[in-house]
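Q: What structure does this chain adopt?
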Amino acid sequence: TRKLGDNIALIGEGRSTILRGKGGIPVLTNKSPETGNSGIMISDLFIDGNKEAYAPSSPTWQDNFPATLFRKVYHSVFTRLWVRGGGMYAPAPGDPIARFNRGNGLFLVESSFNVISEVVAFENDYDGIRIMWLSYANTVSNCVCYNNKGSGIQIIGWYPDLAPDVESQYNVVSGNTIY
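A:
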C-alpha cells in the first residue's frame, strides 16, 4: 500500500501508468487516517486492486478490500483515473470501516471538500465510487462507472446500527455515466 501525506501529487502519464496491488489490501491510502490529510492530488493513473491475485488465507476468514481507501482526506483532487479490482469475498466482521469496504473502487470515508472528476471505475466487487460518513461538499463529476457489482456512485451518510447520528451532506454529483 502506498500512503500519501499532505500536499503531495501523484501524477502518471495516463492509463499506461499502472499501479497494481498485490490483492487483499488497498493500492493507495492516506498516511494519517486518524488525524487526516489534505492537499493530495492523484491524476492520470490506472489503479488496479488486482482482486484476481488475492486468495483468502483460510476458508473461515475472508477479506474485503477496496482498490483505494482514503479516510479523513480534505481539499484533495482525484482526476483522470481508471480504478478497478476492489475485491469482496465475504461480509467482514469487526471493524465497521472494514465491514463496508466491500470491494469498492475509489473509497472516501469522513472526507470533505474533494473533487473527483473524470474517473472511470469498473469491475469492482461493490461500488465504483463510494463516499461515506461525515463527508461534506465533495464534487463527483464527469465520471464513468460500469460493470461494478454494487452502485456506480454511492454517497451514504449513516448506518442505523453503527452510526445513527452521522450524516453526509452538500455533496454534488453531476454529469456522470453509469451502466
